[in-house]
From TrEMBL:
Its EC number is 3.5.4.16. GO terms for biological process: tetrahydrobiopterin biosynthetic process; tetrahydrofolate biosynthetic process. SUPFAM superfamilies: Tetrahydrobiopterin biosynthesis enzymes-like (SSF55620). PROSITE patterns: GTP_CYCLOHYDROL_1_2 (PS00860). Belongs to the GTP cyclohydrolase I family. This is GTP cyclohydrolase 1. Signal peptide: none annotated. Pfam families: GTP_cyclohydroI (PF01227). It comes from Musa acuminata subsp. malaccensis (Wild banana). Residues 43-195, 301-484 form the GTP cyclohydrolase I domain.
């Protein structure tokens, strides 16, 4: 069953029929206190205001349970506010007879201990979008005791599950470990990735984007924090820490982590700087009203309510502009601002030019790696990737202009969506022009996959839609799919 059946599926769930995970989702409030339930309901009410501000009907199929899902994701993603490090570390410190009273630097348990490649995510405090983290933690034991290794990653997770900034996150992890396990020193290195805003991402038909489905094109930063003997300038332990990372092909050099700038980390801040310099269009005024009667100011107040419900102070200086930034992101998905016009499109828009973006196999025309960025209507989180389009045209050598197909993708992507529907809508639009046969493949990363219970960093989703001859001609379909595989291999 695809996401397109969400509305009917939700009705089944209300009658007690459905997958166990979704049944559990309906009753997730059952173990909460009255205060927690009240906060969750407040977030749901705020999300309904945001949906109305986007010109959407919160009661339509597909959106009916979106407020619940968003509230659950926010609460799970900020659970660190309610967790204490001492509860994690307590009972996980073990005596180690081989340790001397002082600090050991030679083999055994007395040397540097490093846990590498801890995959985390956190919510950016500037825009409320999740960002991905690869965390590396090291410490030098002292006092004849060591800590259970899993506790290092659990402590890191506590602080990542809060609204964060990369450098503060590194500092808090380092400080918490140093104060709780009393080691000779602690080292923390974080590699963080933040998705670009649509103004910089390929929600624009003229933009370019790497075809390889990884985190290229994201804003990346390296930050670090250290304490004790790992912070001493004359100590070689920091070099040892970096050397142990290199054994797993994690290449961080001295000085790499000193280049962090908070103002250039979150793309909302970069965009705001551009706005202040007059390089971009102005953001909507607070008094602007959506077709549902919700003002821009009401949407910002709703986001402030979400911050308050999560236990944060919306007046904290780092959060003052957060409602504006989050609403700015959401406004790129307004369903009312796009009007796809294909009526005037015909073979007159075709061209004879074949470049690296086209592969003509007999009558199959292939246009690969059209970038897009869209917004998941189930969680109000972005998903992004590339679209591959193939179509059959009896006029060999003729092909529709890439810019036209980019416009088609852009029109369907820049709204609240699900990937299955997006794939089908693009296929149907192209099929209305070339009705012999059309195949569309969409490959995408979903931020909801890293910022919810599943937390699958690096996973991606592929969907396919076939119409006309492609649905019956296995050879034609296979040729097109092989074209994509060959292209991905050459890009890799």
């Amino acid at each position: 069953m695809g996401a397109l059946d969400a509305g009917c599926f939700e009705e089944e769930l209300e009658n007690g029929v459905g997958l166990e995970e979704d049944v559990a989702e309906i009753g997730w409030e059952s173990g909460m206190t009255d205060s927690e339930s009240e906060s969750a309901r407040a977030i749901e009410d705020a999300v309904r205001v945001l949906l109305q501000g986007l010109g959407e009907d919160p009661e339509r199929e597909g959106l009916r349970r979106t407020p619940h899902r968003v509230a659950k994701a926010f609460r799970e993603g900020t659970r660190g506010y309610k967790q204490k490090v001492k509860d994690i570390v307590q009972g996980a410190l073990f005596p180690e007879a081989g340790l001397e009273t002082g600090t050991g630097h030679a083999g055994g348990a007395g040397g540097l201990v490093v846990v590498r490649n801890i995959n985390l995510f956190s919510y950016c405090e500037s825009c409320l979008l999740p960002f991905s983290i690869q965390c590396h933690v090291g410490y030098v034991p002292s006092g004849r005791r060591v800590v259970g290794l899993s506790k290092l990653s659990r402590v890191a997770d506590v602080f990542s599950k809060r609204l964060q900034d990369p450098q503060r996150l590194a500092n808090e992890i380092c400080s918490a470990l140093h104060n709780s396990i009393k080691p000779a020193g602690v080292a923390v290195a974080l590699h963080c990735w933040h998705i670009q805003f649509p103004e910089a991402l390929p929600c624009n038909s003229n933009s370019t984007y790497p075809s390889k489905l990884d985190m290229q094109g994201w804003i990346q930063v390296l930050v670090s924090s250290s304490s004790g003997v790992l912070k001493e300038e004359k100590s070689s332990l920091w070099d040892d820490f970096l050397a142990l990372l290199k054994l797993k092909s994690i290449n961080i050099e001295r000085g790499d982590t000193n280049l962090y700038s908070a103002s250039s980390w979150c793309p909302s801040r970069v965009l705001e700087t551009s706005l202040c310099n007059g390089h971009c269009a102005r953001s909507p005024k607070n008094g602007k009203t959506s077709k549902t009667g919700v003002t821009h100011a009401s949407m910002m107040a709703a986001v402030a309510s979400i911050l308050h419900s999560l236990g944060e102070d919306p007046s904290r200086k780092e959060l003052v502009r957060t409602p504006h930034h989050y609403v700015q992101w959401l406004m790129n998905s307004r369903s009312s601002n796009l009007d796809l016009r294909l009526n005037g499109l015909s073979k007159a828009n075709s061209c004879n030019v074949v470049d690296g973006n086209f592969t003509c196999l007999n009558e199959i025309q292939s246009v690969l790696n059209i970038p897009f960025c869209s917004q998941c209507e189930h969680h109000l989180l972005p998903f992004h990737g590339v679209v591959h389009i193939g179509y059959l045209d009896k006029q060999e050598g003729k092909c529709i202009e890439r810019s036209v197909l980019q416009s088609v993708v852009h029109s369907f992507a820049c709204k609240l969506q699900v990937q299955e529907r997006l794939t089908r809508q693009i296929a149907e639009a192209v099929y209305s022009i070339f009705n012999i046969g059309v195949i569309v493949v969409v490959e995408a990363h979903h931020l909801c996959m890293i910022s919810r219970g599943i937390e699958k960093v690096g996973s991606n989703t592929a969907t396919i839609a076939v119409l006309g001859q492609f649905s019956t001609d296995a050879k034609a379909k296979g040729l097109f799919l092989q074209t994509i595989a060959d292209n991905n291999a050459s890009e890799g």
